[in-house]
Amino acid sequence: MSETQYERESSREVGGATLRVVLGNIVGQHVDVIVNAANSSLLGGGGVDGAIHRTGGPDILEACRAIRARQGKCAPGQAVITPAGRLHAEHVVHTVGPVWRGGESGEPDLLRSAYSESFARAREAGARTIAFPSISTGAYRYPFRDATEVALATARAELAAHPDAFDEVRFVAFSARDFMIYQEVLEGT
Ligand code: AR6
């Protein structure tokens, strides 16, 4: 199956890598690592998490259960890696973003950590391309523009700190409105 042609996309070269925002579905991405917006149980849920387990199949959940048995729950700001089952990727990195509680409960630091820990797991696995959904902006209610600023700033910091690690960092917007916000933040930074 060839990769979806994006209805909309926008990109910037950062060092040797491409920072790209696309309008699409996270489960349709052909990359080395797909990031999941998981919860601490690692045992599945709705939104991105539901779509990844539905499309990727039972091997992903089995690997998550093994991680749970070995190391317990995954705290907000942390990330773990599993195989990607039937997704068009080598691995899924499951990260847990913060629940938005008004912004004074450490949410920005936890969101930054969710992105940087995801990059760390992907680097350890030798990934050159990675696709992120907008972590915490659905069920966890993080304001979308604020979250997008954290996401893109963390990606730029990652590419500066590890200039040879990645060829492409992709952010997948699920609606035209969300895509516009990503594009504005990408072009404004
Ligand atoms: N592709 C790309 N983006 C998507 C997709 C998709 N298929 N589906 C939703 N989005 P959410 P969270 C967008 O709720 O806020 C789960 O139950 C969506 O519009 O998936 O981190 C977990 O198990 C939103 O902008 O993740 C946790 O319990 C963004 O992805 C909890 O939700 C994230 O929405 C995690 O909540």
Q: Which labels suit this protein?
A:
single chain, 189 residues, alpha/beta, Leucine Aminopeptidase, subunit E, domain 1, 21% strand, binds ligand AR6
> Mind summarizing the main beta sheet?
7 strands, mixed
Q: Indicate the multimeric state.
A: single chain
Which range best describes the helical content: under 10%, 10-25%, 25-40%, 40-55%, 55-70% or over 70%? Answer: 25-40%
The count of DSSP E runs of length 2 or more, i.e. the number of strands, is: 7
Number of helices: 5
In the predicted model, the low-confidence regions spanning at least 5 consecutive residues are: none
Rounded to the nearest angstrom, the radius of gyration is: 15 Å
Structural class: alpha/beta
Question: What is the level-2 CATH architecture name?
Answer: 3-Layer(aba) Sandwich
Domain module tally? 1
Q: What pattern of helices and strands is seen along the backbone?
A: EEEHHEEHEHEH
N- to C-terminal distance: 35 Å
Bound molecules: ligand AR6
Give the overall form. Answer: globular
CATH topology: Leucine Aminopeptidase, subunit E, domain 1
